[in-house]
UniProtKB/TrEMBL annotation:
This is NADPH-dependent oxidoreductase. The keyword tRNA processing does not apply. Belongs to the flavin oxidoreductase frp family. PANTHER family: OXYGEN-INSENSITIVE NADPH NITROREDUCTASE.
C-alpha cells in the first residue's frame, strides 16, 4: 500500500549539494504555509523560523556548523523555540513575564515548544521534498548556540532548535538503511528483560553489517565504522560547554529546573 506522500517519506535523503538556482517566492510561501499547519501544543504557536538570506550570515552559519555547503543553500532557515512573542502578549495583559514568574519559561513549556519547532520543520522538509527539492536538517548549527543567539539577535525566551537547508538537488545519494522495526517498535512495554536484550544485540549485529555495506558502497575511499562503533564512540565523549543546554537556555530566560 502506498501513495505519493508515503513515497516521499520513504525516499527521504539528506541533500548536501544544491544547484545554484533560487527558489521562487511562490514555492517558499507554500513551504512556510506547510510549516505553519503542523501541530502546535495547546495552540501556543511557540516557535518561529529565521530566514537566513544575507550571504555573510550564511557563511557564518556554515562556520558554526563546520559544513561549507550550508552557505550554498538557496533557502536556509533556523527554527527556534519562541516564548518571546507570547511574553509580549502576556505583558500586554498585565501578566508578569520575569523569568521567575513567567509561566511559559519552565521546562515543560520549553520542551513542548521545542517539539512544535521540530514538527514545523519536518512539515516544511516533507513539503519541499514532495516538490522535488532536496533538504538537509542542520543540528550542526547547535555547535555554537551562543554564536547563533548573537548572530540572529535572538531575544529573551527564544532558543535555537535546528536549521534546515533547502534547494534543488545537485546529487542523488542512496537512501540510508533504517533499523529493523524489531529494534524500534515494541508492544505495550519496552523489552528490557535478558532474553529481549539478547535479541536486540543479535539484530544490531545484522544492522551493523548493513550500515557498513552502505557506507562502503557510498565512499570506498573513506571507511566508516559500523553503527554500534559510532554509538560507542559518541557515548564515550564528554559533552562540551557549547552543547550543555541548561546553562545556555538559562541565559535566554528559560528555567529548565522548574
Amino acid at each position: 500500500m502506498t501513495n505519493s506522500t508515503i513515497e516521499t517519506l520513504l525516499n527521504r535523503r539528506s541533500i548536501r549539494a544544491f544547484v545554484e538556482e533560487p527558489i521562487s517566492d511562490d514555492i517558499r510561501n507554500v513551504l512556510e504555509d506547510a510549516a505553519q499547519h503542523a501541530a502546535s501544543s495547546q495552540y501556543l504557536n511557540d516557535w518561529s523560523a529565521i530566514r537566513v538570506q544575507d550571504p555573510a550570515l550564511k557563511q557564518l552559519m556554515a562556520e558554526f556548523g563546520n559544513q561549507a555547503y550550508i552557505a550554498t543553500a538557496p533557502l536556509l532557515y533556523v527554527f527556534v523555540v519562541d516564548e518571546h512573542r507570547n511574553a509580549l502578549i502576556a505583558a500586554g495583559k498585565g501578566v508578569p513575564t520575569d523569568p521567575e514568574h513567567y509561566g511559559l519559561s519552565g521546562s515543560y513549556r520549553f520542551t513542548q515548544a521545542h517539539n512544535d519547532a521540530v514538527l514545523a520543520l519536518h512539515a516544511m522538509e516533507t513539503a519541499a521534498e514532495s516538490l522535488g527539492l532536496g533538504c538537509v536538517i542542520l543540528g550542526s548549527l547547535l555547535n555554537n548556540v551562543s554564536g547563533l543567539v548573537e548572530a540572529l539577535h535572538l531575544p529573551q525566551y527564544t532558543y535555537p532548535v535546528l536549521g534546515l537547508a533547502i534547494g534543488k538537488p545537485a546529487q542523488e545519494p542512496a537512501v540510508k538503511p533504517r533499523m529493523p522495526r524489531t529494534l524500534q517498535f515494541f508492544d505495550n512495554t519496552y523489552p528490557s528483560d535478558e532474553q529481549s536484550e539478547a535479541a536486540i544485540q543479535a539484530d544490531l549485529a545484522s544492522f551493523d553489517a548493513t550500515v557498513h555495506e552502505y557506507y562502503d558502497l557510498r565512499n570506498t575511499d573513506r571507511p566508516v565504522d559500523a553503527f554500534s562503533e559510532q554509538i560507542a564512540k559518541l557515548a564515550a565523549q564528554e559533552m562540551g560547554d557549547n552543547h550543555k543546554m541548561q546553562p545556555l537556555a538559562h541565559g535566554q530566560g528559560f528555567r529548565l529546573e522548574k
